[in-house]
TrEMBL record:
CDD domains referenced in this protein's UniProt entry, alphabetically: Gal_Rha_Lectin_CSL1-2_RBL_SML_rpt1, Gal_Rha_Lectin_SML_rpt2
PANTHER family hit by this protein: PROTEIN EVA-1
Protein name, UniProt field: L-rhamnose-binding lectin SML-like
Entries under PROSITE patterns matching the protein: SUEL_LECTIN
Taxonomic source organism: Seriola lalandi dorsalis
Annotated keywords: Lectin, Repeat, Signal
Pfam families for the chain: SUEL_Lectin
Domain of life, per lineage: Eukaryota
Extent of the signal sequence: 1-22
Residue ranges occupied by any SUEL-type lectin domain in the UniProt entry: 52-134, 141-230
Keyword Membrane assigned: no
Amino acid sequence: MLHFRLISTLLLAATCLLTASGSTNSNRCLIVAPLSTHRVITCDGKKNVQRLSCEEGLIGVESALYGRSDSETCGEGKSVNELSNTQCSQDGTVDVLKTRCDGQKVCEYNMAVVRTSNPCTGTYKYLDTTFSCFPVVNTVACENSLANLQCDQGKVIFVYNANFGRTDQTTCSYERADNQVQNVMCSGPTSEVADSCNEKNSCSIRASNSVFGDTCSGTYKYLEVNYRCQYPAVIAP
C-alpha cells in the first residue's frame, strides 16, 4: 500500500505561528484554529505521488519527515537492513512542502520534488506529512479599485496568497472588450499584500499596475487575495 491518511477534526486545538517581533524581544504568536488536521504517508519511489487536499479551507503544512522513524511503515517486502535505521531524516523537508503547498486547495508532488539529499544510504524511506486545513476569506478587486481586507475586532490578517492578473474570462469582465479578458495566462503572484496587511485588523490596497506592475499589457486585471483572520498573542522571551 503506497500511502494512507489519518484524519482528526480539531475543535479546540490551535496552531501557533511564531514571527519575530522587530520592536521587542518577545515573539508574536498568531493563534488559528484549524478546521481539520490530516496525516499522509507515501512510500518512496519515482512514480509515487503524495496528495494533500482540503475540502474546506486551505493547506498549511505542519510537519514533514522524509526518511524513517520506525521499522514498520512501508516495510512490506523490504529486508531488515532496509528498515533498521529509525533515526533517518532529511533536513529541510518541511520547508520544501510549505513553499509548494501552503495556501493551496490541492497540492500534489512526487518523491523527486522532496528528495533533496540521501540522508541514509541503504534505508528504504517514506514521506510522512501532517497538514491542517485553515479557514480562508477570498476577496477580489477589479483593476483600479480597492481590495479591503477586514477582520473582526481582536483578530488580525494573515495573507495566504495574492495574485494580480487574470486566470479566467468571467471575473471583472463587465463591459470589457473581448481582447481585454482573453489572456487567462496572466498570473502575477505577489507578496505586496502580505507585506502591507499581515498582522493588521484591516487593510486596503489598490489593485493597480502602479502597485503590482503590468504583468500583461492590454489585459484588464484583478487582484485576488486569500487570507484568514486569527487571534494574536504575545509570548514572553
